[in-house]
Write a structure and sequence with these properties.
By secondary structure, this protein is α/β, with parallel strands linked by helices. It has two domains: about 10-185, Flavin prenyltransferase-like (Rossmann fold, 3-Layer(aba) Sandwich), CATH 3.40.50; about 195-400, CoaB-like (Rossmann fold, 3-Layer(aba) Sandwich), CATH 3.40.50.10300. It is about 35% helix and about 25% strand. It is built from 15 helices and 22 strands. It has helices at about 20-30, 50-55, 70-75, 75-80, 95-100, 105-115, 125-130, 135-145, 170-185, 220-230, 255-265, 295, 310-315, 335-345, 385-400, and strands spanning about 10-15, 35-40, 60, 85-90, 120-125, 150, 155, 160-165, 195-200, 205, 210, 235-240, 250-255, 270-275, 280-285, 305, 325-330, 350-355, 365-370, 370-375, 375-380, 385. An eight-stranded mixed β-sheet has the order 13-12-9-14-17-18-20-21, with helices on both faces. A six-stranded parallel β-sheet has the order 3-2-1-4-5-6, sandwiched between helices. Strands 7-8 form a two-stranded antiparallel ribbon. Helix 1 runs parallel beside helix 2 (about 50-55), helix 1 (about 20-30) packs across helix 9 and helix 10 (about 220-230) packs across helix 15 (about 385-400). Bound molecules: cytidine-5'-triphosphate (CTP).
């Protein structure tokens, strides 16, 4: 059964030669049970007419921000809210730049700025325009804002050039819209709060020096993103990393293990707590208030003290323990054996263990090969990209919490 049944789609048709395909798109979406309302930009109206959009959708076609008639019948704010999804096809470089910059000089851009609804963009333009750094910057901004993309495809363009910039085919856009609604329906972690730690911690020696480790934070950030895409409300307690915050995740930046400990407890209660961070085992108790001068004090003696074990402090809570506590174990030998012992010692429910010996290339790399250790023993997962490990783990967590 189509996921489009009963869905309201606002279709914004930009000014490109592919605008005529938007008419077919409207029909195909309606065939699957959606209702479609059209906005035609000034540029779009150079290629197709409001009358054809209105005739095909069976609804009024909106074109003008300053039209007294349109505003009286349906204000642009209402127009932007009375939809389950806004689809822009074709989306021109100009319209994407307006969106990325938050401009609102015409009806389409105003609606896009005023909306609180999800937006899917199907770009179409000349390949050079697509490849231009300005367009690529805008795409990055829009993706960061949670905008969904379908296409463009590569091939022969209307201008005669070959490259990326063809509007995705109508069935591809329809599939993407179907996929969007089926993902929306598939939010098994909706209503669940998950606290997750990621990245390294930095333990200051003095104002300019610190003790750190090689953790990139990549795996933890991927897991936070995967959990959020399943609908979880994720609090990501992050050590210093260069990772981008995943869409929909609440990020709390900390530096030291003690700050991470406090931030984790301040963000409880949670349904699950996932400890991916590579927490420094020690901090420097005699941290210098000023930069230590080697000509004055010579080689310093660092007074190292143990950091709180954040995972154990949550796993042993007698009141308000999350129902699932997951630890990670980065080992360089006897991986499963050490990790299983760690699970018992820290009283967590699961341990995700991996071998981080230099020859595996896992630390800082894009792939991971993990063993999931539960009360039922160890499962060996294949070596796969870190985002796939994250999805697999998020699915398992969803199953466990449901
Ligand atoms: N962990 C934590 N707080 C710490 C140390 C570790 O929350 N102070 C968490 C890590 O995020 C990870 C798990 O505990 O999920 C295991 O971390 P690891 O550094 O391997 O554990 P250690 O107790 O330091 O074990 P060892 O040094 O003996 O390998």
């Amino acid at each position: 059964m189509s996921t489009l049944i009963g869905k309201r789609i606002l279709l914004i048709i930009g000014g490109g030669v592919a605008a005529y395909k938007a008419l077919d798109l409207a029909r195909r979406l309606m065939e699957r049970g959606a209702s479609v309302r059209g906005i035609l930009t000034k540029g779009g109206a150079e290629f197709i007419t409001p009358l054809s959009v209105a005739s095909l959708t069976g609804d009024q076609c909106f074109t003008d921000l300053f039209s007294l008639k349109d505003e009286a019948e349906m204000g642009h704010i209402r127009l932007s809210r009375e939809a389950d999804l806004i689809v822009i096809a074709p989306a021109t470089a100009d319209l994407m730049a307006k969106m990325a910059g938050g401009l609102a000089g015409d009806l389409a851009s105003t609606v896009l700025l005023a909306t609180d609804k999800p937006v899917m963009v199907a770009p179409a333009m000349n390949a050079q325009m697509w490849d231009h750094p300005a367009t690529q910057r805008n795409i990055k901004t829009l993706k960061g804002d949670g905008i969904h993309f379908v296409g463009p495809n590569a091939g022969m363009l209307a201008c005669g050039e070959v490259g990326a910039g063809r509007l995705a085919e109508v069935p591809e856009i329809v599939d993407a819209v179907e996929g969007f609604f089926s993902a929306e329906n598939n939010k098994p972690l909706k209503g669940k709060h998950i606290v997750l730690t990621a990245g390294p911690t930095h333990e200051p020696i003095d104002p300019v020096r610190y003790i750190a480790n090689r953790s990139s934070g990549k795996q933890g950030f991927e897991i936070a993103g995967a959990l959020a895409s399943l609908g979880a409300d994720v609090s990501l307690i992050a050590g210093p990393t260069n990772c981008e915050t995943p869409i929909g995740v609440k990020r709390i930046d900390i530096e030291t293990a003690r700050e991470m400990h406090d931030a984790v407890h301040a963000n409880l209660p949670a349904d699950a707590a996932i400890f991916v961070a590579a927490v420094a085992d020690w901090h420097v108790a005699n941290e210098g208030e000023q930069k230590m001068k080697k000509t004055v004090s010579g080689i310093p003696e660092l007074d190292l003290r143990e950091n709180p074990d954040i995972l154990a402090s949550v796993a042993t809570l007698s009141d308000g323990r999350p129902s699932l506590v997951v630890g990670f174990a980065a080992e360089t030998e006897n991986v499963v054996e050490y990790a299983a012992a760690k699970r018992e010692r820290k009283t967590c429910d699961w341990i995700v263990a991996n071998n981080v010996s230099a020859d595996t290339g896992i630390m800082g790399g894009c792939e991971n090969q993990v063993h999931l250790i539960t009360e039922n023993g160890a499962e060996d997962w294949p070596r796969i990209p870190k985002d796939k490990v994250a999805q697999k783990l998020a699915d398992r967590i969803a199953k466990e919490l449901s």
